Amino acid sequence: MELKIPDHIAIIMDGNGRWAKQKGMPRTYGHKAGADTLRKILSYSGEIGVKYLTVYAFSTENWKRAKEEVDTLMFLFKAYLKSEKKTLMKNNVRFLVSGREEGVSKDLLKEIKKLEEETKDNTGITLNIAFNYGGRSEIVDAINKMIENNETNITEETVEKYLYTKIPDPELVIRTSGEMRISNFLLWQIAYSEIYVTESYWPDFNKEELIKAIENYSKRDRRFGGVK
Ligand code: IPE
Ligand code: IPE
Ligand code: MG
Fold first, then answer.
1. Cα–ligand 2 centroid distance for 43 (angstroms)
2. Which residues contact 205 (CB under 8 A, 6 or more apart)?
3. Can you give the residue ranges of every domain in the chain?
4. Cα 76 to Cα 70: distance, rounded to the nearest angstrom
5. Which of 42, 72, 78, 105 could form a disulfide with 28, with the two C-beta atoms 3.0–4.6 Å apart?
6. How far away, in angstroms, is 13 Cα from ligand 2 center?
7. Contact yes or no for 67/58 (Cβ under 8 A)
8. Can you tell me the distance from the alpha carbon of 171 to that of 85, in angstroms, rounded to the nearest whole number?
């Protein structure tokens, strides 16, 4: 069977907490393992020719969690920005973050901007991290910016111009850990994305699982409302 490699894959990296619990470990242990999985999946996605990889790392709803867990997620993200710089440059990865700035520490925002700037001319895969991201807040923020700029005659293209990130819509959305829901991820962009859910927890997700998802996607009949 011919494998159709999507240009853009978006992943809801879910199940870190349950993965850790199953091992009798704290949830934060699962988040550390999840960061390692991301490193591997990014590298493999680049190798097989994926052009954009968007990953959901922290939602606007995740602030509801215990302070210790939120602090660890902030810490891990900051550590990732520092530890990955060399590898991202070496692998020609362009790094982007999509999300609301409000609520994120100045320090972390500075590191994000720095890495975006340093990798902006890289021409390999784009890694887009959805952080402090919510699909609804993205749309609300876009509406407010359109009003500020006195936009009139608003079309779909106008709205797209105001979203956090200007990259093509994902053809494939993968969610790990078996949950059949979107949890406020990329509401606008996934209007016609194919959805694939695997039971594996994110720390257990690997190359083979990614290929399985792409195989499944390759068999889909994408009609976009038309008739084939
Ligand atoms: C996904 O794993 C990572 C984040 C949401 C930050 P979870 O932390 O949601 O793990 P589960 O779903 O509780 O197992
Ligand atoms: C979605 O997972 C957010 C991320 C993966 C970052 P959640 O674990 O927060 O979603 P729900 O609560 O199961 O819907
Ligand atoms: Mg979860």
1. 24
2. 13, 37, 41, 176, 198
3. 8-134+170-218
4. 10
5. 72
6. 8
7. no
8. 28
Beta-bridged to residue 128, according to DSSP, are: 54, 96
Which strands make up the sheet holding 126-133, listed edge to edge?
A: 94-98, 126-133, 52-59, 8-12, 172-175, 194-197
Q: Which CATH class is domain 8-134+170-218?
A: alpha beta
CA pair distance 82, 72, nearest whole angstrom:
15
DSSP label at residue 162? T
Paired tokens of 141: 């923020």
127 lines ligand 1 (CB under 6 A): no
- Would you state the structure tokens that stand for residue 144, as one six-digit string? 């407010």
* Torsions phi, psi for 146 (to 5 deg): -65, -40
Q: Each residue's pLDDT tens digit in the chain (228 positions)?
A: 789 999 999 999 999 999 999 999 999 999 999 999 999 999 999 999 999 999 999 999 999 999 999 999 999 999 999 999 999 999 999 999 999 999 999 999 999 999 999 999 999 999 999 999 999 999 999 999 999 999 999 999 999 999 999 999 999 999 999 999 999 999 999 999 999 999 999 999 999 999 999 999 999 999 999 998
Which of 12, 14, 21, 61 for a ligand 2 pocket mutation test, highest count of atoms within 8 Å of Cβ?
14
